[in-house]
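User: Predict the structure for this protein chain, please.
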Amino acid sequence: MRKALLTLIWVCTCISLSYAQAVLTPENMALGGGGSTYINDYQANFYNPANLMIKDHPGSFDIGVAVGGIYFDPVLNYRGLQDQFHNLKDYIQSYDPSSYTLTPKMRNQILEQDFKPGASISSNQSRYDITLLGLKWENKNSAISLAFRSRTSSKYTTGKEWYTDYISAVNGIETMDRTLTHRYQTLHEISFGYAESFPFLSGLTPRLDKFIIGIAPKLVFGGGYLDASWTNIYERSIISGEINRIQSLNYSATGNFGAAVSDYNVGMDARQAVSNNFDYDASSIYGIGAGLDIGVTYLLTLGDDLSAIHSGNELTRKSLRVSFSMTDIGFISYSQDEVTIDSPQDTTLVEAFPAQLAQEPFMGIQGQYLNFIEAYGEDNPLKSSNRITDTFSTLLPLALHGGIMLDLNRIKLMSDLSIGLTKNAFNSTTLISSFGIELRPLKFMPLRAGIQLESSEVNFLSVGTGIESRYWDFSVAAQLSPEPLPSFGAVSGFSMATLRFHF
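Assistant: Here is the predicted structure, written as structure tokens:
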């Protein structure tokens, strides 16, 4: 019976194999972006609330402040930490047209590193999270928690021919891809978590195991939002010489993104519209919604570990865990400075390919989308009479997660799988898996490492450590890009947890 249950749960988790990183914490980052079976403090609200019932620290009450993380996969990477830090600042501040230039060397680097062989578009992302405050309390039969989190993500894809005028032919068709997609979203969340072990499930087997179910409803406030997808492709037949332009636009925005496009459509210059509307304010609220995170964990204790039957009294030291969770079930409604433009696909005959190349990299910065198209496009589809200014709703970044972990006290091995179910700024449908390990040569100092694979290619490597005592702990982690730089790789992410206390 036990083998059948384990096999069933593992098969369910293996169905999903894609990128949808639920949290950015030092533990999660250091373990390759996974941790659906590992994270069991108040951050579990946002990943797998069932883990709130797993006890691996003394005490019954935890409190933590200012747990933050930054991840960015930039268009250009820099080996030096100072250069990479200045690079990061460009991604989190508002757009300034005079601050970005594209040299021939930078252009070649983008074409070599951002576009895989045979690919016509590149995909990049930047994201930063902060959990301002978290509380967790557990007793013998259940656990409850409260967490306040803010997160922002910018995800964008760019057609290759924005950077090059070299066009290759496939099956007698020369194609110039100038597609430009940008998704940006800020969410502020207040989450309430609850977890409990259910005897009617645990009683299915006579072993030292238990099934835990967790739920975390949350109130969500929306900051800036953008979902812009411009298909812009030119195709020339080698036989006839005719050039067809295929384009469509789907644009939904609120807050500063919507206000800038509205100003642009009533005659304001694109640069001025961006300048007037993108004074960065992370606390602005443009919408409100509700969400739910749910999860289940199967915990099988090993050896002399009796924590499964002595709930609330003993720490879990040796176990096999299998988890499944669903995050961001819900929606958010936007009702301030909202703009929607929907232009269906249209094919027109044009005389020539565009001649002007982009003179700056598209970096997914707030306000850059409007100005980039205005400066380097043949025309600007955002200047449209089909604008709709009305309240709209969108789903939260729904995702599924599954994982398995073997915990042997001072050694933890884990694998995580996830899939994003909606197109949004946080998730994608690219196949990705995460693998992590934690070693404790010293009981109070964990050493963590991880790797994330994307379609059998390394997406990033990660390392982390910390100090853990009876009453407090502190953790840090960093991600490294595997790009072919002169050294091992560029730092592409960093996460730190200030003191967390256990009572």
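Residues 2-14 form the longest helix (13 residues).
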